[in-house]
Amino acid sequence: MGLIYKRRANYYETDQMGIVHHSNYIRYFEEARLAFMRENNCDVKELEQKGVIIPNVDAYARYHVPTRFDEVLDIEVRLTSFNGAKMEYTYTARNQNGDIAATGHTLHCFVNSDFRPVSLRRADPGFYQRLSALLEPEE
Amino acid sequence: MGLIYKRRANYYETDQMGIVHHSNYIRYFEEARLAFMRENNCDVKELEQKGVIIPNVDAYARYHVPTRFDEVLDIEVRLTSFNGAKMEYTYTARNQNGDIAATGHTLHCFVNSDFRPVSLRRADPGFYQRLSALLEPEE
Amino acid sequence: MGLIYKRRANYYETDQMGIVHHSNYIRYFEEARLAFMRENNCDVKELEQKGVIIPNVDAYARYHVPTRFDEVLDIEVRLTSFNGAKMEYTYTARNQNGDIAATGHTLHCFVNSDFRPVSLRRADPGFYQRLSALLEPEE
Amino acid sequence: MGLIYKRRANYYETDQMGIVHHSNYIRYFEEARLAFMRENNCDVKELEQKGVIIPNVDAYARYHVPTRFDEVLDIEVRLTSFNGAKMEYTYTARNQNGDIAATGHTLHCFVNSDFRPVSLRRADPGFYQRLSALLEPEE
């Protein structure tokens, strides 16, 4: 059910260790997550127009093999939990050697513009249904 | 009339050349400009609450001496043009040796949330007055 | 001779005005420039392995129409000046309506790891030749 | 033993939700950590000159209360684990109301320029000693 999001490492994302700065993986994860949602007809922009925003509750990344400038990562993203109030994604970024560069997960909640919790099931039943269908089966 | 804004270069702002990535100076300029406005009782937050935002019209930076991680820059910012519709700032960033690291300028306009031009003189006369008083004298 | 580099605006690149922060265009320009060089067999990574790096001398961006999250820009990049010591690029970013979102230019020099000028013609004649062939004709 | 690092939220760090983008806290944590090390005579720059770099092994942030543009955070950083091969830091960021904005932790290892593990005890005994002295007592 997941998506593989391809992402080339930019020069400005490297640091003086000569590798992609660790903070950028959190941004790569966001790109992968939003690509996954967009591709699956769960458009965050539409939801925001209805007054629902999706801040992060947490974010975690573990770094395995450094990524160099110009390397292309395959970032696999999967929806591993969703109940209408929160959703969780897990990520695995592999370089072109097939090595795992980074793994991670992020948790998100649905809130209104005052950052009060919103039930997505009530706020947008169609979105809720479409997103539910993307949930990974329990292993 | 200007302000000297002190700014230490962060590790995540370096790139694999071992120097601060050039895009970050545009951000340093913004920090200096907003510090200058805040210190002089021209608070951008208040203006935004009144529905006036201040996007960039342009931005320019020239790079002289590279900045390394942990170096502290003295960024001098001055308001060099203001007429109620647009404002221009110029910047000079010096390192602790007194060398010029970068210079630049930015131009800004005042618009409403639809990005339509706003006359600051009408939208907020007090802000207009306070900002006018900060304008550098013609040389 | 130029290249059109496609780039989707990321969520983390927006600011509280709801548009792509102006500093990010400087980064988009870099992405476009490095894609142009890579596609044309002028690989910056190889040059860096030979001890030649290419810092910015300056950077300029002018902002026309704001870019929103998820919009895709067509960024046209062209090599407008090159003499073995410096190179200049110009950029035009258009959104999917065909409107110009931003224009700009950047100037770069070739230096060694001590940031001393290097003649690319001597340091890497092949690179020099290949890059020369990409220069836009005088208008 | 910890340090309180003060950090004002920059405009360019906000996103279109009107709050500091979650990825930036990972950068704030880095700033706080490096300030802590610098203040305590454990200078990362010196260590890098000796060929020892300190990449992240992981990074975690939990977001409690959103941070707005121009808010000042007090970021408390503490060294919670260190054995010469790895070090772990924990972070608590509070806003000026005393509310916790974010918490987190990061794990780091010491490697050479080939990203091979280095024993800090052997590579720089003085640094090892000084850093050991900063370790939080077991609770």
Morphology call of chain A: elongated
- Corresponding CATH superfamily of chain A: Hotdog Thioesterase
Computed CA radius of gyration of chain A, to the nearest angstrom: 16 Å
CATH topology descriptor of chain A: Thiol Ester Dehydrase, Chain A
The helix content of chain A, as a percent range, equals 25-40%
Sheet/helix structural class of chain A: alpha+beta
Biggest interface and which pair forms it? Answer: A-D, 22 and 22 residues
CATH architecture assignment name of chain A:
Roll
CATH class of chain A: Alpha Beta
Report mean pLDDT of chain A, rounded to a whole number. 97
Order of SSEs of chain A, N→C?
EHHEEEEHH
**What multimeric state do the chains show?**
homotetramer
Taking pLDDT < 50 over at least 5 consecutive residues as the criterion, the unreliable ranges of chain A are none
> Tally of extended strands of chain A?
5
Largest sheet of chain A: 5 strands, antiparallel
**Major sheet: arrangement of strands of chain A:** 1-3-4-5-2
How many distinct domains of chain A? 1
Report the span from N to C terminus of chain A: 13 Å
Q: How many helical elements of chain A?
A: 4
In percent, how much strand structure appears in the residues of chain A?
25-35%
